[in-house]
Amino acid sequence: MWLYKNEVFTDPRNYYGFVYLIENLTNGRKYIGKKLFIFTKTKIVKGKRKKIKTESDWKTYWSSSEELKSDVAKLGEYNFRRTILYLCMNKGTCNYLEAREQFERRVLESTKRTWRRMKVVTTTLLLPFSTVSSSSTAKSATVT
Domain locations in the chain? Predict the structure, then answer.
């Protein structure tokens, strides 16, 4: 079951997806991710391609992390809490809020095994050219 604002969530209405937090209640480990409520697949109907929107497996979804899914299988679903942090109207918002949560919670900087390692979403940010400086030797950009 998914919780949103401390209540069971069952109706995605017109939302596109959500950003979530899964917590292991036995050891405190956490995982932040995103999931879409619907996806588009292409089907050939009478020789023509047609896009069809289909509900995803969001109700039974436990993340893309094999380590987390393995823990759920070993420990049981009752030892985990799945919380929806944000409901999103589009994919871009889901991507942004997932990355923001990961950075704000300093997930990748943690030396403790509190956070599960995950892929960081790559997002293009449009900044005025004057606000970005880069070093050719370091190959990194700094926002000033």
Answer: 2-143
